[in-house]
Design a protein that fits this description.
The protein has about 375 residues and is mainly alpha-helical. The protein is built from 13 helices and nine strands.
Amino acid sequence: MDQMWANRAASAEAAITNRHLRRLWGLPGTQLAVVSWPAAGRHRRFGTWHYWWQAHLLDNLVDAQIRDPQPERQSSIARQIRGHRLRNIGSWVNDYYDDMAWLALALERAGRLAGVGRPKALTKLADQFLTAWVPEDGGGIPWRKQDQFFNAPANGPAGLFLARHEDRLRRAQQMADWIDETLIDPDTHLVFDGVKAGSLVRAQYTYCQGVVLGLETELAARTRDPRHAPRVHRLVAAVAEHMAPAGVITGAGGGDGGLFDGILARYLALVVTDLPHRDAADEAARATARAVVLASAHAAWDNRQTVDGLPLFGAFWDRQAQVPTADTEDAQLVDGAVNSSEIPERDLSVQLAGWMLMEAAHTVAGDDTDDTGESTAGE
């Protein structure tokens, strides 16, 4: 793996560790991330904590452990899991299926790849997704309990988790087929957000593309069913055309949107590493996915700020990052979603996405040359 990207990923990890990670309420053996920097008082006290942001932090810690296995990071993963459950009032579940899917994915990877397993939690979460499947109501699984919004950000990660957990491949394929039949834009081939009370919600977000790429790539690798790889090819090409102008993934600001571009980068990297190599179309999709990840990572790094020797990433990777201050308006929770801080770089989500991108670049780089063919040794 490329040392330059390893170093940049390590710097991104250090920035999150130094600015955000704290014990939960001072309890030994726990950890969560403060959701802003500079932090508001209620954030430092974990009055606000954002379940799904913390799940992505756990996923990033697993990425880092794969990149550079360390006993202390394995302990950090265990602390993060313990803190998450405690802050969630001793439970793994909540009312949002997309939240639970992100945590399930991170917990599954923590057990399989980092040696910190929580099998009972995985069983509990799998049951949530299996019982939420309601094709008779137009789904899919809904966004949240007692809701009629069936969307890609719930079905994509839940399906990916089920494909990985105890080989629930039949249900995972049903979920992928539902997305393909219901949510694909016939003009752009991008993924629409979802269906609400029978009406198509036509918004197209970067993370919707990412979760579908992850699900279809996993199914292509696990099932060898010929319908999955062409869906990956089609969606990678659509992302490159419509969501990565000049090769750089489009940003979505801060708040929850701060994670959207990072999620797409994560699953573009999965296309590179896990899509089976069968024909020229597979190779073309892998090459395009790799190019988008690396171009985005170069742009994000070049446009970062450096604070106390550590990177601060921008909410839009093709623009110069802005250093946040404590006296600007911070993120607000509105109807189950987190809106951006006045300066989006203040939000943990934005910095997690930058770190996620650096880990993705490290994963796909694969040698000691960058995407221009120039040596990066010694950088």
